[in-house]
Amino acid sequence: MGLGFGRKEAGSHAASFLLGAALPTALLFLLASDRLGEGLSSISRSWGSGAVPPAGDGANEVIFKGLPELLPRVAMEDRTVIITSVNEAWAQPGSLLDLYLDSFRNGVDIAHLLNHLLVVALDARGFERCKAVHPHCYFLNATSVDMSSAKPFMSPDYLELVWTKLTFQQRVLELGYNFLFTNNRWSMDQDCDMVWFRNPFRHFPVYADMSCSSDDFKPSRAPLDNPLNTGLYYMKSTNRTIQMMRYWRAARERFPGQHDQAVFVNIRHELVSKLQVKIEPLETVYFGGFCEYHDDPEKVCTIHACCCIGLDTKVHDLKDVAADWKNYTSLTPEQRQKGGFKWSYPTRCRNSIGWRRP
Predict the structure, then answer these.
(1) What is the rounded distance in angstroms from the CA atom of residue 79 to the CA atom of residue 122?
(2) Are 280 and 221 in contact (CB under 8 A)?
(3) Which residues of 238-271 are buried (b: 16+ CB within 10 A; e: fewer)?
């Protein structure tokens, strides 16, 4: 049944007038909001500085089919989702996905966060394995590349993958959802290469548009002078962050052959000065990695298998860390107070890149 335009009834003319008057008001209401919902996503894509070209968003509706229906089932009350990704190799029993999921169950009051974790599968077999162990899986069938095996770091297939995932993240923001993304840049094998111990959301600055991990954090430095690592980052869905994603992706042409983190590091000051994006690094005492970590199990939230090459290498050293955590949490309060705790040294990972730092 239509709205009755063209009929002679007076009631239909009144309805037409009221509808015409209401639409501009509703549009102004949407434009006044910094948080972008799905109703605003089509409008927001036409905004921005002249230097940021359109991102081919019409294709996003096809490439990321089903995502608008899936996100409401995964998101927290504040419309935040946790995102990681797997392929067939990482999703095998006993591999990175199992370690990742188990760490939530063994952490401090974070098992409920699994309800808000979206695992993005890069191939069909990884998707099937994900569905067998986790309720929220999404098949990123968005590239022509076979993603069932590890891709050499900086190979053309690798670059296509990391830039496609950035497009996916932009779509999540456009739909009005914040996200915490866990990812890795150093290795030939990617993602869910992390273990969780505590709720990380308590350590993201409320004023920041983007909170980003760092390989070597020093509070005495200016925020953007810390070595930023997109191994873990949290982004709010705002006008600024959508503009940022478009700017970031467009900057790829200025740095040919570079991955997304390298381009991000190169343009970080531009993002702040031109788009007024607020970017804050995260302290390694809370968000550690094999590049830099602290032996303080009372503060640590996550440990990331960065500075590491090779799937088996990552699995081995992350299993050591997970075992260390179980041993620590089994101690009595009195035993913990004695101190002396140290994580197992990530020998295989450090050797895989020739890392000699303590």
Answers:
(1) 24
(2) no
(3) bbbbbbbbbbbbbbbeeeeebbbbebbbebbeeb
DSSP annotation string for 26-50: HHHHHHT-SB--HHHHHHHTT-S-T
On whether the CB atoms of residues 196 and 97 are closer than 8 A, the answer is: no
Structure tokens at 109: 């009051």
> pLDDT of 256-269, one tens digit each?
878 888 999 999 99
Q: C-alpha dihedral over 274, 275, 278, 282, to 10 degrees?
A: -80
In three-state form (DSSP H/G/I as H, E/B as E, the rest C), the secondary structure along 281-334 is ECCCCCEEECCCCCCCCCCCCEEECCCCCCHHHHHHHHHHHHHHHHHHHCCCHH
Contact residues for 261 (Cβ-Cβ < 8 A; gap 6+): 185, 228, 229, 230
CA dist 186 and 189 (Å) reads 9
> Could you report the per-residue pLDDT of 43-56, keeping only the tens digit for each?
333 333 334 444 44
Contact 143, 164 (CB under 8 A): yes
- Residue 185 corresponds to which amino acid? R
Smallest CA-to-CA distance from 83 within 71, 95, 65 is with: 71
Task: Return the domain boundaries, the chain.
Answer: 62-347
Q: CATH code for 62-347? A: 3.90.550.10
pLDDT digits (tens, 9 = 90+) for 300-332: 999 999 888 888 999 999 999 999 999 999 999
CB 343 within 8 A of CB 299: no
pTM more than 0.90 = no
